[in-house]
Fold this protein.
Amino acid sequence: MAREGGQERRTSKKSERSDEEQLAPSEDVAERKERLDEDVDAILDEIDEVLEENAEDFVRSFVQKGGQ
Amino acid sequence: MSVRRVMGTEVEYGISVQGQPTANPMLASTQVVNAWANADLRARRARWDFEEESPLRDARGFELNRDVADSSLLTDEDLGLANVILTNGARLYVDHAHPEYSTPECTGPLDAVLWDKAGEQVMRRAAALASELPQSPAILLYKNNVDNKGASYGAHENYLMDRSTPFGEIVQHLIPFFVTRQAVCGAGRVGRRQDGSEAGFQISQRADYFEVEVGLETTLKRPLVNTRDEPHADPNKYRRLHVIIGDANLSEVSTFLKLGTTSLVLGMIEDRATLPELALERPVRELREVSYDATLRHLLTLKDGRRMTPVQVQWEYLEHARKHIEHTMGSDVDPETTDVLDRWGSVLDRLEADPMSCRQELDWVAKLSLLESYRDRDGLAWDHPKLQLVDLQYADVREERGLYHRLVRLGRMRRLVDDADVAAAVTDPPADTRAYFRGRCLAQYPEQVAAASWDSVIFDLPGRESLQRIPTLEPLRGTREHVGALLDRCDSAEELFAALTGP
């Protein structure tokens, strides 16, 4: 089946490449840290946009009956 | 030995009705399942066939008396709750107060990931359809296991095994494996104790809900090893190990490793291979202690006095699996088995060095990484509702709202399957198990399939008084290779039935 080979290899190669870019040896440690922080901030900004409003009420009202 | 065997997952989804915290969850679950059934006319008619179900049969060799069993265990009594068999061979139904999707029978962990992911699509679409009805509020579904107020619901696995393997050996070797595999396949949770009353993170969603080592129950006094003995197949040849200790995973790598590594341990037990002696002094307690230590440095105490970290225990199983495979297969190892061994080793290596390096692969690490980022940026304590919201919303099945799905979209989670294959798996069954026969019968003869189950398809044929049951007791028959051409050639269910039962 196609998915057993190609797709996975493509995906992991791509992510390896981006890891290498992030860890480029010429990059100064402080610069790298700064870039990672910016990166994390970008993720959190993105997540902030979709988080439900009023966390406390939302979490409190999530009540389930037990299952298996 | 290989990772390949007949297996599947059975996931109960958390459910809530937006703006109505007191809504009846059974009703909402029924609306979700019925919405799918109404939209997919082919799925509309067939009932579930309960004839071969035996939830009270215990793998240790006895049967629980029905009169003394807790009513939640009587899963074979048709309560008239919604129940749909899909053309991909899966079952979508209401179990207790949750919608549940059971994958069709798959022959390896990668296929199981694919049809498990197809289940997420089914749930997402079904919930959207149910919410489209006039005056219906939005129904939200979560692929998680806890509400942080005391309730837990399951994400089970099932593995077909050789019946001749003594159950005692399965129990002995599985317990240390199950107690420690959460380091790889835990889904992460904000909150400790069953009701979440203690603030903090833990690796597993389910660890707080297990109270005994072995048992038949699945809803109370949950056991590390469940003894439900419903093979849904020839009981003289097979047992179907019902695993209730896992978390519901979103990460494809987590699900792949959960199923693949468990299959390897079962393979070693079946082969009577040399297995490590890792009996734990207090396994139920250790399950919780492993879960509560996200540094993975907790030392488990073994019966022989040794103390090991969860990752060291996992390494023991991996090393033995590698040796056994080399010994029995040499270089003739299938690629899926090699992939499981390699990924398992890679993940264990990195979990030992720096767990955070697995943040793009494992659910609990991805979740913890996100939570720690929030704690850093906003200075939040572990009891802050926003962190609990991140935990909950990580599992939201909606692509636009679910945080796991956002991480995927941001290129932050590694994938193993692609979207086109998942979309196909929503409608198509696996080609290499009896799910193929079941799924194609439903797709091709929806009007004539009166009922179906894992081990039967029941036809209601024109001109016949009684229903006609085709047993499918052999999970590896009814494949495309066996019946594909026959199904291609039979335009009607009558023709198929005549061909199957004829002289």
Q: What stands out?
A: The CA atoms of residues 470 and 500 of chain B lie 9 Å apart.
